[in-house]
């Protein structure tokens, strides 16, 4: 198997290779190499420039919206702001992982400003969901990102699924990108539902609710004051659809099409659990900017608090270490990663095609 091949499902259930002869677990050995290379050090200058640049472009988009006024050219502004909303969400992602600030309080404060106020997406809801994903990526029972609510991620899920996923699953590879146009609406709705649900465990739920309401009120007021009703509706649709597609295309290459895990017996150790279920996307600095550094998904999952600009350097160390241990390290180009994800979706839905044949 070459380093860029997708490991088969059986890889996760197979006995792990012999552990390293160095003291500690296999991951502990890797961690010492990463720390020794200084790759967990904070990068305040990088984040000051990145957050400042995103904030300027975000403000510039809304300024152009206000200046342009009644015009169908506003749909171009809507598309641009959809991109900027995704960039703000990627900044909130780094804040949630404490890549920017070491302490919890400033990380959460900045995260709520970016997520709830800037994007209209609950920071607390997303952080809880994303933390569970990081702990058990692609685990069918523990990872909320492979919940078969709309799509099925394995043939086993397809055998027992019902509802919407049963209807879509047979041809889900064809539905995947069209349905991403609704992902922006889903992120807003799911977060709001979690915040306003009675008994929700989200911290500072009242504050999150207020920030979400302020975002929605200002957003809708701006659209209705500047645009005609039909223009406002079209703006909202284009804006949220671009935002949803961007977010979906950012996260889809990372784990979709990689092995899924079921049950407790199949759960490998931390190093293999993160590496074997993740895929890196090859590309240059432009791709890193577009994907917020998440093209280095393996390194990000192994060291979630590592600042984004260090992930590329960490890749060299992690890939070499995986080669030492005989652990498959998967990389693909951007288009190839989407193709692998779509092929996996098509294969996972095979039992549903048999039923409907």
Automatic annotation (TrEMBL):
This is Acyl-CoA desaturase. It holds the Pfam family FA_desaturase. Its EC number is 1.14.19.-. One of its GO terms (biological process) is lipid biosynthetic process. Residues 71-331 form the Fatty acid desaturase domain. It comes from Streptantibioticus silvisoli. It is an enzyme of class 1 (oxidoreductase). Residues 1-25 are annotated as: Disordered. Residues 1-13 have a biased composition (Low complexity). One of its GO terms (molecular function) is oxidoreductase activity, acting on paired donors, with oxidation of a pair of donors resulting in the reduction of molecular oxygen to two molecules of water.
């Amino acid at each position: 198997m070459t380093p860029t091949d997708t490991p088969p499902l059986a890889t996760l259930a197979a006995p792990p290779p012999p552990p390293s002869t160095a003291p500690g677990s296999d991951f502990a050995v890797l961690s010492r190499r990463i720390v020794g290379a200084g790759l967990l050090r904070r990068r305040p200058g990088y984040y000051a420039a990145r957050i400042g640049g995103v904030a300027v472009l975000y403000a510039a988009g809304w300024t152009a919206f206000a200046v342009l006024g009644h015009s169908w050219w506003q749909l171009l502004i809507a598309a641009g702001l959809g991109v900027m909303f995704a960039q703000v969400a990627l900044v909130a992602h780094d804040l949630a992982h404490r890549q920017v600030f070491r302490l919890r309080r400033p990380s959460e404060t900045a995260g709520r400003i970016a997520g709830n106020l800037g994007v209209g997406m609950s920071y607390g809801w997303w952080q809880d969901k994303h933390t569970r994903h990081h702990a058990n990526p692609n685990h069918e029972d523990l990872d909320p990102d492979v919940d078969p609510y709309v799509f099925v991620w394995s043939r086993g899920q397809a055998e027992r699924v019902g509802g919407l996923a049963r209807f879509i699953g047979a041809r889900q590879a064809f539905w995947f990108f069209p349905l991403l146009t609704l992902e922006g609406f889903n992120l807003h709705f799911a977060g709001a539902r979690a915040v306003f649900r009675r008994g929700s465990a989200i911290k500072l739920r009242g504050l999150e609710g207020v920030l979400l309401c302020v975002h929605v009120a200002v957003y809708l007021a701006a659209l209705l004051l500047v645009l005609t009703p039909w223009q406002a509706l079209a703006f909202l649709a284009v804006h949220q659809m671009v935002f949803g597609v961007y977010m979906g295309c950012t996260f889809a290459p990372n784990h979709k099409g990689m092995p899924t895990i079921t049950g407790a017996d199949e759960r490998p150790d931390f190093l293999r659990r993160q590496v074997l279920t993740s895929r890196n996307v090859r590309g240059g600095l432009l791709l890193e900017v577009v994907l917020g550094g998440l093209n280095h998904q393996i390194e990000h999952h192994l060291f979630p608090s590592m600042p984004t600009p260090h992930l590329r350097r960490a890749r060299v160390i992690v890939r070499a270490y995986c080669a030492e241990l005989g652990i498959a390290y998967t990389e693909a180009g951007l288009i190839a990663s989407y193709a692998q994800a779509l092929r996996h979706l098509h294969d996972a839905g095979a039992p549903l095609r048999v039923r409907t044949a």
